[in-house]
């Protein structure tokens, strides 16, 4: 597939998650609620996680921001549901590396829709938008590990 076609496909995936966000809302019975914002551009997120026995049972996100920020939050909540804390944190590390243009070396890992965000690393001002939800998730899961 040509680079131009791939960019178009990725834009479509990002816009689909932006217009039809997955896991939108707040968990009333969540074990952790994390509020974060990006003061540079005004993106904000409230992430609610439900963790039981070291597994992310559910994740919901609510907030407002640009298409990159909101689609990233949607993709992230989909990716971490059902994962062990360690797996979710590993995914966050891989995502962070991807945003810095660093290749990840886990052939067994399918990032799915998240790969659509890999082009964000070409736009340094947008990296904080893409990583906001992921940083909120890391913060919540690290708090969980300390309890």
TrEMBL record:
GO terms for molecular function: transferase activity. Keywords: Transferase. It is an enzyme of class 2 (transferase). The keyword Magnesium does not apply. It comes from the Bacteria. InterPro entries: NIF_FeS_clus_asmbl_NifU_N. Pfam families: NifU_N (PF01592). Residues 10-129 form the NIF system FeS cluster assembly NifU N-terminal domain. Its EC number is 2.-.-.-. PANTHER family: IRON-SULFUR CLUSTER ASSEMBLY ENZYME NIFU HOMOLOG (PTHR10093). NCBIfam families: SUF_scaf_2 (TIGR01994). This is Zinc-dependent sulfurtransferase SufU. It comes from Neobacillus rhizosphaerae.
